[in-house]
Each structure stands twice: as C-alpha cells, then as structure tokens.
Amino acid sequence: MTAPIPHPLDQDADGVNRPGLHKNPKYHELRETGTGVAVVRRPNGTTAKLVTRYHDVEQVLRNHAVFSREAAADADDVDLEGTLLGLDPDEHTSVRGAVKDWFTPRAVERLRGTAEERAAAQLKAMVERGEPADLVTDFAFPFALNLVCDMLGLPQEGRLRFREWGDAFLGTTEQTRMGADEALISMVAYMSELVEERRQKPGDDLLSQVAVGGAHLSPDRQIKLPITLVLGGWETVASSVGIQVHALLTHPYGGYDTAYAYLTDHPEEVPGAVTELERMFSVTAADAMPRRVVQDVTLPSGERLRAGDLVIPSSDAANYDPRVFDDPHRMDFSRDPNRHLSFGYGVHHCIGRHLGHLEVVTAMALLTRELPKLRLAVPSEEITYKPGHAVLGPTALPVAWSE
To answer: Hey, how many other C-beta atoms are within 10 angstroms of the C-beta on 292?
Structure first.
C-alpha cells in the first residue's frame, strides 16, 4: 500500500506550509493518477483523502447531506466553529440570510463608484510617497480593508488591529495556535461591544443589519459573522491583488513581454483576465476546508468513500482539470466558460465573491491604466509568500513605476 503523502503539499521539514505563486506540480500528478483521490497525512498525524478532480470536488462541496463541515470541525486548522465556514444547512442558511442582500450582484454593483474612488485615492497616496513601494501594504491592503470596514461601519481607529488579529488568527502551524486563540478572544471582545452599540442605536451600515436583522441568531453567531466578513473581506482581496500583479508581471501574453503590458493596451480584457487569474492563482494556501463523510458514497471518478472518512477537496487541482478546462496551464483571458472553484461551490460558495471580484477588477483596471510601466523592484524569485497561513499571498510586493 502506498504511504500517505504529507499534506499540505508545500510544507517544509518543520511542517510549515510554504507555498509560492505557482501551484505544486504534485497536484497535477495526483489528479491524473487512478481516480485522482490520494491518501494524505496531515501535520497532526491523522489521514484524509485528498480529492483532486473537478467533478469530484464539485460533489464534495455541493452535497452537504453526505459531506459535512460541522462533523469535520475537529480537523480544522483554524477555529471556524460557529462561523459561516463551519456550519451545515440549515443553520448556515440562517446565518447567511442575515446579510446576503448586501452581497447580491445588484447590491455590489451599487458599490462600484465607491470602490473606484477608494482605489484611486489609495493609489494616489502610494505614488505620492514615492517608489519603490510595497503594493500590498501601500495599496491593496488599505483599499480592501477600508472598503469592507466602511460597509460594516467599523471605527477608523480599530481597523489596523484587524490586520494583526487576522494574521495571527489565520495561522495554521502549531507554533501559531496560541496566538490564534488570543486573536479570536480579542476580536470577539471588540466586536461584542460594537454589536451591542448597534443593537441599541442602529444605523444604515452592515453591522447594524447584523445586530438588528440578525436578531434571531445566537450571540455567538452575531459576533462571529461580522468578524468573518472583515477577515474574508480584506485578506483575500489584498492577497489576490498581490498574487495577480505578481503573475501579470512575470508571464508573457499575447505577444507582449508581460501580461501586465498586454492589459495596458487591452483594458477591456481586465475582467476576463481577473477571472482567469482567479482560476490559475487562487488564494487557497492549502486546499479547501475538510469535510467528514457521513454516509457511504461513490464519487463521479469511481472512488468509494466510507462514512467517517475525512476528505479534503482541492479546488487548486480541480481548477486545472483538463476534463473541464481546455489546455488548463495556458493563461487565456477570454476563456469561456470559466467555472473555476476558487470561490467554492454550492451553499458554501464565498458570500463576498461578487464584491471581491469587483474590487480586484477595479484595482487591476486602475493600475494598468495609471501605472503602465509598473514593474517588480526586486527579482521575482525574491518575492516570498506568507508561510503557515490559511490565505495565500505575498508578504510584500516591492514595485516601481517610473520610466
């Protein structure tokens, strides 16, 4: 019998996951071997089944009657109990319903002008400070954080603390667990006060919607919902901007030396480019959250799973499945359809996917228009990515833009 494969696939000898810009080639090897389901050994010594083919992953993400998130809570690298990411229907639907109207395509479209204004102001501030600059810290992070915090109505003075808390909370190594627990306690205490304030004196912000419109939720759910929205709202967007700019500046496209240069001459292709980059360079640092099989089932690939099995769906591997994506390793800004799984699928699809996509498109359109000569200020191989973190993204992205 083949020995279990260490998971995450990018972990070093100390068990710290250290992914980079490109997905581990092992994903593609596993996907094309047998049924594409591989037994992996997790850092805590337990085993799980890594699911890599698109239609298998789709079924795991969609069929909550068989693949339970709540039953796998003991296997999570990050404490997600009571959050949208840790619940099964019907409780998940109840929590999500408290805020879902704020994240529909129509609601998000009304934020387009605000997003464009905020992005432009942040870029102006970065340029005025001079080059080189860190595109993550000086542009992507404050743009994403302030937009979601404005939606929630969080006080300006408390926002930067969420970056510190978020970095600690989303750590996935044994060394960061204590810091993660402390961060969660701090976030809960801080958000509890704000939710109570809105309950007594509601406004027209999203936090008031949680406090009043989510009155049917337990106190724990009411507090963890806005925490999830803040962390997901800035971390994934800021990381996506960093990853995508890094990819655009280091890959040729359409006869141009870089895909970034191509987009400066073809601005109409920015939305399609962002969608393709979401597929190829997702912010998933180590596959989707595990599910526990609650009844025997056979996947489309033919793999038989037993009740009690722990499964890890890999959207990273599925996004390159040649059964669904023609020539999947080729960057194609006009790929259609492009039903990637980077935002999840089914009930647990990312509630902020429309907003996040809008923000990244806004950032990319602005950068390629205003800074057509943007380039890395250090060699690409010197760009490091966050180690032992649930969200993939560069620790910094030094850039310059003058002639």
So the answer is: 20
Strand partners, 284: 391
Sheet holding 133-134, edge to edge: 133-134, 398-400, 375-376
Q: What is the CA radius of gyration of the chain?
A: 21
Render 287-338 in DSSP notation, one character per residue.
-SPPEEE-S-EE-TTS-EE-TT-EEEE-HHHHTT-TTTSSSTTS--TT-SS-
CA distances from 139 to 121, 325, 334 (A): 9, 33, 27
Place of tokens 């080189």: 132
Cβ burial 147-172 (10 Å sphere, 16+ → b, else e): bbbbbbbbeeeebeebbebbbbbbbb
**CA distances (Å), 254 to each of 21, 207, 259, 333, in order?**
21, 45, 7, 10
Query: What pLDDT score does 87 carry?
Result: 55
**With b meaning 16 or more CB within 10 Å and e meaning fewer, what string describes 252-281?**
ebeeeebbbbbbbebeebbbbbbbbbbbbb
379 secondary structure, DSSP code: -
Q: What's the CA dihedral at 90, 91, 92, 93 to 10 degrees?
A: 50
How far apart CA 344 and CA 307 sit, in angstroms, is: 23
Look-up: residue for tokens 């915090």? 149
Spatial distance between the Cα atoms of 204 and 215, rounded to a whole number of angstroms: 16
pLDDT value at residue 90 = 63
- Of 345, 349, 290, nearest in space to 71 by CA: 290
Q: Are 36 and 51 in contact (CB under 8 A)?
A: yes
Q: What is the mean pLDDT of the chain?
A: 90
Q: CA–CA separation, 19 vs 12, rounded Å?
A: 10
DSSP state of 77: S
Residue in the structure block whose two tokens are 């870089």: 258
Query: b vs e for 189-226, b when ≥16 Cβ sit within 10 Å of the residue's Cβ?
Result: ebbeebbebbbeebeebbbbbbbebbeebeeebbbbbb
Q: How many CB atoms lie within 10 A of CB 53?
A: 25
Q: 216 or 65, which is more confident?
A: 65
Question: Integer distance in angstroms from the first to the last C-alpha of the chain?
Answer: 59
pLDDT tens for residues 73-129?
Answer: 877 666 555 554 545 566 656 666 778 898 899 999 999 999 999 999 999 999 999
Q: What is the pLDDT of residue 288?
A: 79
